[in-house]
Amino acid sequence: MIAQKMEQALNKQINAELYSGYLYLAMSAHFESTNLPGFANWMRVQAQEELEHALKMYAYVNEREGRVILDAIEAPPSEWDSPLAAFQAAYEHEQKVTGLINDLVSLAVDEKDHATQIFLQWFVTEQIEEEASASAVVEKLKLVGDAPQGLFMMDRELGARTPGA
Ligand code: FEO
Question: What is the pTM of this model?
Fold first, then answer.
């Protein structure tokens, strides 16, 4: 059975993952409203991934005979000044999530909870990818600047993202 302290921390992370999903869905809605369907698609796929992250933790807490308690999800912003501003916010958000995952690992070490340490390794690896994929779009957007043609091409590229990619 999982220790209460660890259980509470994982419950908090379930909320953080659901918030991430909410944030990216808000970004997707923003891009839908600014006629960038490819950007919207990328964010919608990202939102789905976040829900999967939350469900992975949900399943783990239950498996360890813990109790999942769902808290209120904070409302995300609804507007961003530009595609670059939105992706920069996404990148910064992922850096924050990496910090949260690292704190969970530290807690699992302190609690001598080896099972949770192993479970969290998937998230540690996943965060490398999460940061890298948001950062890659930020860098491309910096190159494109305000050129409409470049944005149009990027929209096509981001529109090709499918779940699991
Ligand atoms: Fe669930 Fe984007 O980290």
Answer: 0.96
